[in-house]
Amino acid sequence: xxxxxxxxxxxxxxxxxxxxxxxxxxxxxxxxxxxxxxxxxxxxxxxxxxxxxxxxxxxxxxxxxxxxxxxxxxxxxxxxxxxxxxxxxxxxxxxxxxxxxxxxxxxxxxxxxxxxxxxxxxxxxxxxxxxxxxxxxxxxxxxxxxxxxxxxxxxxxxxxxxxxxxxxxxx
Length: 171
Fold this sequence. Notes:
The structure is a single chain. By secondary structure, the protein is mostly beta strands. The protein has no helices and 23 strands. It has strands spanning about 5, 10, 15-20, 25, 30-35, 40, 45, 60, 65, 70-75, 80, 85, 90-95, 95-100, 110-115, 115-120, 125, 130, 135, 140-145, 150, 155-160, 165-170. The strands form four sheets. The protein has an eight-stranded mixed sheet with strand order 3-6-9-12-17-20-22-23, with no helix packed on it. Strand 22 and strand 23 form a beta hairpin. About 40% of the residues are buried. The mean pLDDT is about 95.
């Protein structure tokens, strides 16, 4: 019961599993690549492009990475997820922002900005975390459940809250 659009733009390694009721739209400038032993649980929504005339950048998921149930990966600006990364349920990575500052024009006519999101190796992202466009999460970081990440997270940092703030380190 998984829907896969533009499968020719998706490259997968060995032992890749995509759960039931997931939606993957691989139409992107750079396509999508999933490494070996990637597990994407049920109900995932993965997309880089909403309209065919403005393709997004794409998505790379490193090997031995687990994406929990009901995760949303909006890869318009590009998302790079490292190896041995674990996402809890309901995580959202949103690599695109709508422009809205010109009050004389409808928001839908103002376009988008795209910077991209990078998640380093060996990162744990707790349930219901939201990571916004332009963020880099350093290797070994931990993001606590429900955090909203609006700025970069240093390697080995432990962050929680809205907006996310450092509460410790793993080293």
